[in-house]
């Protein structure tokens, strides 16, 4: 039975079990910003790169078939969720934002590092950096320990939460 979900970061993912294999078909509108990667995230905390979306018929698309065993070993079955992230911006990112695959490595505090569950947008400056994550009321709050320091910002038609950090990776209070 085929299922279709919206991916975090935009687009849709169709999931079709076919015996001992599962066929995935991801699609998102072509926005000209760069190359997007699709990551599967499982209920048990697993993470698996599904692949890179490619232009196809005026949109970006990816079709891939994986074995149930591979998905289970990666902790992404049953019940995978998908995240579509801008991996390689064509023009250096929007306003200096780029996709940081491992943002936890930038953060000094181990509690905050553990709270970061996946890729985030990152903007570097002379005195530090900012991290941004999509905000959706139907999903867990990203970077929960820094709830009170989150600044809402609309980027590319999507609401994001932004946190500022100094060069050492310590969180900073929002600037006015």
Describe the protein's architecture and organization:
The chain has 176 residues and is mainly β. The chain folds into two domains: 3-89, Sandwich (Immunoglobulin-like); 94-172, no CATH class. It is built from two helices and 14 strands, in the order E-E-E-E-E-E-E-H-E-E-H-E-E-E-E-E. Strand 10 and strand 11 (128-134) form a beta hairpin. The longest helix has 6 residues, at 68-73. The chain starts with a strand and ends with a strand.
Question: Topology of this protein?
Answer:
Elements: E1 3-6, E2 12-18, E3 21-29, E4 34-41, E5 47-52, E6 54-56, E7 59-67, H1 68-73, E8 81-89, E9 98-100, H2 110-115, E10 120-125, E11 128-134, E12 151-155, E13 158-166, E14 171-172
Antiparallel strand pairs: 1-2, 2-3, 3-7, 4-5, 4-8, 6-7, 9-10, 10-11, 11-13, 12-13, 13-14
Describe this structure in a few short sentences.
With 176 residues, the chain is mainly beta.
Tell me the total number of β-strands. 14
Approximately what portion of the residues adopt beta-strand conformation? over 45%
CATH architecture of the largest domain: Sandwich
pLDDT average, as an integer?
A: 86
The percent of residues in helical segments reads under 10%
**Based on CA inertia axes, which overall geometry fits?**
globular
Which fold name is given in CATH as the topology of the largest domain? Immunoglobulin-like
Number of helices: 2
